[in-house]
Amino acid sequence: MRQLHVWWSHPPEHRGDRPVVVALHGRGADETSLAVLADDLPDGVVLACPRGPVPEGLGAAWWQMHVIGYPVAASLARTRADCAGVRIAYAHPDRLGVDRFLALLAAHARGNGPSLLCGVGTALTLDLLDRDGCHLGGRIAPSPTLMREALHARAAQLPIAGGEYCEFATDTEDALASGCQGAALGLIEHSIAAARRRLGTAPSLLLHGGGGEPLMPHLPAARWAPGLVLEGLAVWVGVERA
How far apart are CA 140 and CA 135, in angstroms? Predict the structure, then answer.
């Protein structure tokens, strides 16, 4: 399913102290749903589409807003080499997914010192950020959900979902859940240890993404940050409008 992050602001008389940020998923990111935003009289919109180009039809959505009398300035968030105090490690910053980039902006803006960011969606991503905002690189691996889907695709008798995590399972569903979640946990724990050696201190672990919550009970030091990418989108907007 496609995911689209949308930030929009209201005119001063309607705007609160914090920017309004929403996430639209899959078929929700179409002309109809976005046209509804016009009812809130937005004066600006910023889009961030983590997977590929912005879904077809969005241009039509903004045009419809203009036609019905709500002029909306729309722009697209993109990864930058240096933004809001964060410096990206990639030699070609545009190759770093915008969702990872925005999460880095949010983590640095929180001011919690060095952080290891773990996003769990289709992929499991890890990014290390030092206290000065320097991105030190990261990792990409299949998420537990994608592992289950891949196993089921190759061996249909293996259930695509279900089961509970345990250290040594006594049935197939639990064994699959334990193995796939365990693989993710092992990578995260290994990355924490590597980050500690690199930094000389343990980083804060920020866990986000739709598949992150099931891992939380097994990562007692983790901080659950489900809105991290959207926080970063708001930071990006602040830089753009400064």
Answer: 15
Q: Are 4 and 24 in contact (CB under 8 A)?
A: yes
Residue 239 CB partners (closer than 8 Å, separation 6+):
83, 84
Pair of tokens at residue 239: 């830089």
pLDDT in tens, 151-183: 999 999 999 999 999 999 999 999 999 999 999
Q: Say what the pLDDT of residue 189 is.
A: 98
Question: Is 99 assigned a catalytic role?
Answer: yes
How far apart are alpha carbons 122 and 103 in whole angstroms? 16
* DSSP helix/strand/coil, 144: helix
3-state secondary structure of 164: coil
207-224 burial code (b ≥16 CB/10 A, e <16):
bbbbbbebbeeebeebee
Q: Strand 204-208 vs strand 222-224: parallel, antiparallel, or unpaired? A: parallel
100: left (phi over 0), alpha (psi -120 to 50) or beta: alpha
Task: For residues 107 and 119, give the distance between their C-alpha atoms in angstroms, rounded to a whole number.
Answer: 12
Q: List the catalytic residue out of 17, 43, 94, 99.
A: 99
Using pLDDT thresholds of 50, 70 and 90, give the confidence band for residue 9.
very low
Residue pair 89/100 in contact (Cβ under 8 Å)? The answer is no
Q: Hey, what domains does the chain have and what are their CATH numbers?
A: 3-76 (no CATH), 82-235 (3.30.420.40)
Structure tokens at 65: 């807003």
